[in-house]
Amino acid sequence: MKKLLSTILSIIMIISCFSCVSFAENEIKIILNGTKLKMDQAPIIVEGRTLVPLRAIFEGLGAKVEWDDATKCATGTLDSTVVSLQINNTTAKVNGKDTILDVPAQIVNSRTLVPVRFISESLGCKVDWDDATKTVIIENNVKLDVFKEWNFNSGSFSNGTDYILGGAYSSSCVSVLDKYDANGSGKALVLAQRTAQSHRLKLKDVFTKADLGKTFTIEAKILTPDNSGEVLVGMYSDVNTQYAMVPLMSNTVTTTQNVWKNVKFTYTHTNEIITQLGFGQPTGVDVVKTIVVDDVKIYGDTSTGTSSEEKNENAPVLTDGRNMTFDNMTEFVHNKDFIAGGEQIVSAVVVSNEYDHTSKKGKSLKMGDIKISSNRVKVLNMLSDADMGKKFKISVWVLSPNCDTGVRMGIYSTTGTENAFSPVAVTSKAIKKGEWTQIVLPYEYTKQGLNQIGFDQNTKEIAKVLYFDDITVVEDTTIDENAIVGEDAIEISEDTVKFIGRTDKFKDGYPFNWSASGIEFKFTGKNAYVYVSKVSNENQNKYFGVFLDGSKEHKRLKITKKGWYKLFEEDLADKQHTVRFIRSSEGNNADDGIMLKYVKADNVKPTEAKVRKIEFIGDSYTSGYGNLELGGNKKTPENTDGCLSYAYIASQLLDADANIESASGAGATMNNTDSATKSIKNTMPLRIKNSTLVTSTMSETTPWDYSKFIPQIVVVFLGTNDYSGTPVKGSDPEYFKAGYKDFLLELRGYYPNATIIGCSKPSGCYQNEAKEVIESLNDKKIIHFTFTKFDSTGVNKHPYYTTDIEMAEELVAKINSIPGIWN
Question: pTM for the whole thing?
C-alpha cells in the first residue's frame, strides 16, 4: 500500500510540475522596440507568465542592474524608477512600494529569470503578447526627437550626393516615384530591376564622429511589390573601407509581397567610419526584384538601448575602473560578457568561488571541461574603439590547480571577422600547478574592432580547468615598441629569415611593396606570427600569400593595420615547418606601402638559398593585375594576386629564387599616362635602381646593390605602356626602340653573364620593334620571346590567372629548351 501511495504521489508531482512550467515547442521571442532581444537562456512560461533572464531584460530596457548575493535580490534602476525583486518572493518593490507578483523571480539552469511584463511595465513600457507566434512585444514609450528623416516626397535625391550604390547596382534602376507610398499619397524610394542580393543603396552622411557613443532608434517602411523575401537594413562605411560591402551590423526583416513592413531597431554608434545606412539583402536568399523604401526616420537618444548589433556593447560588473575581479558577479553571460571559441563548451565558463586571487575569499572566472589547446574564452567590454591610439598594459592572474601548462593571452576581434581566431597581439607564459601566475601583455590599440581579450593554451599537456582573476587594463604611455611586440619577438634579418625579392632595412622595418616580395623561414611548433610595423593607408586592404611547407597553393591574408598577424587559422602539427609570406596584392598604388619587422615562433631560421636565380622586370602583366576576375574594368587588391602571376608561377616551376620588379602603368621609355610629354619619370629603368617600390606615402628606399642578387636569367616584359602612352597608340616607334635598346644594354652591364629574354605579347606592345632591337644587338644571350598564350579575359583586358599559368608554362618550356642557360 505504501509503495502504491508513493507511486501515485510521484505521478501527481510530475503532472504538477508540467502544469506550472512550460518550455514551449516554439521558441518564445521577445521583441523590444522592433529588435529581437538576445538572451543566453531561453524564456519560459510559468503559470501563464513569461520569465526572461534578469540581466538581458533590465539592460535591454536601459536600466542599470545590481545583484546582492547575500539577500538574493536584484535591483534595476532607470532614471527615477527603482525595481527590486527577490528570488522566490512574490512581493516585489517599485520605488519602495510593494507589488504582488503572480510568479516570483527564480533560478533556472543557473540563470536568474524574472517576469518580463512586470519589469517592462514598471519601467514605463507597453507590453503585448502575440499568441500565434509566441512573441512578447515591448515598446518603449519614451518620446524621442527625430535626428534625421527621409520621406522622399520633395527635393532632389541623386547618386553620389545623397546616396551611393553597391554590388555593381546601376543608378538607372533607382528612382523616386509616386507609384508607391506608405502613407497613401506622396512618393517613395524604388530600387528596381535587382538581379543579385548584393544590389544595395546606402544613404550618405547619416552619422558622424560627433555621434560616437550615442544610441539611435532607426525606423523604416519596406515594401516588396513583386515577391516576398528578406530585406536587410544595415550600417556601412564609405567605399574602400572596412564595412563598405559587409555591414558592421544589420537588421533583416521578412516581407510579404505587396504588404508594407515596418522595421525598427536601435544602433549604438561606436565606430567612427560608419557613416551610411544601407538597404539590400543578406547573402544566400532569393533575390527580391524590387525594394521600396519610405519614411526612414532616425531618432536621437543618448540612453543605452538594446542593439541588434552582433557585437555586445553591455558592460559586465567592473570594479576599480578596468579591473575585473568577478567578486560581485553572479553570472558571466555568453555573448554579453564573453565569447567562447575554439569549440570551448559555453556552460563550462562560470563565475566560481572555488579559488580567488584578489582576497582569497571572493570569486574568479572558471574555464572548465577543456578538451584541446584551442578551447578559448574571450572577455568582452574591457576595450573599445574609443581607445584608438592608446597604449595599455593588460594583465591577468591565472591558476591551473591540477597540472603545469602554458597559457596564451591575445587580442581578438568579434565573431566572423578576420581576427576572431587569430590574435593581433599575443603573449604566453608557463603556469605552474597550484600557483597563481600573472601574464602581462603590452598593447597599442591601432585597429578598430580589436577589443576582446582572449585566453587559451599553447602546450602539449592541456589543463582541463583554469581560473582567471583580476583582469586589468591600464593605460601606459611609456610603452615602447619592444614592449608591445613582446620579449619573444624575433627581428627579421638575413640571420633569421630568407628575403624573397628586393628590400632593405629602415627604422620602421623592411618594406615589401614589390609584387611577390616577402620572407621565408623555418620554425618549430603549431603556428607562427608576423609583425606589420608600418602601413601607409589603413583604409585600403593589402594581401599577402601564405605558403606552407613548400606547397604551390597559398591562402591570402588580409593586412589593414599595424600589429601582429597569425599566419594559420588552425594550429598545425607540432613539428618543423617552412612558411613563405609574400606580397599578393600589388604595391604600385598611391597609399599601398607596408613594412614588416618581427616574426614570432620557435626555432626560427632562414631557408636555404636556391642555386637557380631569375629576375622579372615588367608592368601590370607581371604584377598579376586583376587576374582573379573575369572581365570587369576595375583592378582592386581583392582581384589581384601576384602569387598567381606568370612570373611567380614560372619561378616555382623552375625551382628558382626570384626577384620580381613590376608596376602597373610603367614602361621602358614612358608610362601609360605620360602621353605626349615623353616624361621618363618612374619608368621601369628608373624604378629598378631602387631597393623598394616607392609610393607617394612610403618613400623609404636606397639604391639597389646589384651584387646582392645575381640572376642567371632576366625576363623583361615591357612595351605595352610605351605603346599606349603616345597620343596615337604606337605612333613613336623610334623613341621606344632607342630607349628599349639603352635599357637592355644597361641590364647587360649589371649582369654580364645572364641570359636576357625580352618578352612581348602578340600585338599592341611594339612587339616587332622589340624584336628588331634585340636582333640588332648581336648578343646571343639576349633573345626575344612572344607569349602566344596571352589573352585579355581578365580585368581591363589583362590575363585571367588560368592564362597566367599557361604563359608561365610556355616561358618555362622556352627556358628549358636553351642548353646551359643556368650555367
Answer: 0.53
